[in-house]
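We include the entry.

. . .
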Amino acid sequence: MSLLQTTDLVKQFGGLTAVDGVSLSIERGTVQAIIGPNGAGKTTFINCVSGLLDPTSGSVQFNGDDITGQDPHEIVQQGISKSFQTASIFPRMSVAENVQIAAFGAEHGSFRFNFLKRRESYDAVQETTERMLRSVDLWDDRNIQAQNLPYGDKRRLEIAIALASEPELLFMDEPTAGMSPEETRQTVDLIENLQEELGLTIVLVEHDMEVIFRVSDKIAVLHRGSIIANAAPEEIRGDEQVQEAYLGGAEI
């Protein structure tokens, strides 16, 4: 059984159809990439699955359960998390406090912000915080204010925040955007390590084709809101329809 299955998923904004009948099956333990030109519907598709947008029609199933139209916090509790295109952090809090907030929310549901005064009593939160910061190699920086991290480390922190709910599936939306070549290399290594060490299923939206072809098991190509191909990297590389839609006929 697929971990995530969308069936005829549609999202319309007035007269614009941003996602047009997308049916996609994602296998457990794989890295599924989603590529396509700007405006192809990639982020809208992810937002429909993760609860940030309600689909116009169609369905989303996760672990065999229908999660279509659920609120984001309900979907997180089902086991789906997301890192965003830009780092979403509390800049004046420490690296550890950023992850503690996310871990506490996942462990205890809704909470008041005064939990920070008593957070040390929550052993599970502390254990999760340490484990996730170690997984992204930020444990040694745990007491640094988040705003003082280099850009690449802020993105790694944002991934740790997404991991704090201990998801089965992680959406990564442009994880290398704005990064230097060295930061990109480190992020690619991180993606590979997360899959191997945590057994995560990862859905990756990314414009850097070198990254895509290195880490992906399958690549889905969106064009004008529809999937025109979904196959192994080498099949996608040689697909003339993909080359035409994505790069105007240039080889990828």
User: Anything to note?
Assistant: The longest strand covers residues 16-26. The chain has two domains: 1-79+167-252, 86-166. The CA atoms of residues 135 and 198 lie 9 Å apart. Confidence is low (pLDDT under 50) at residues 110-114.
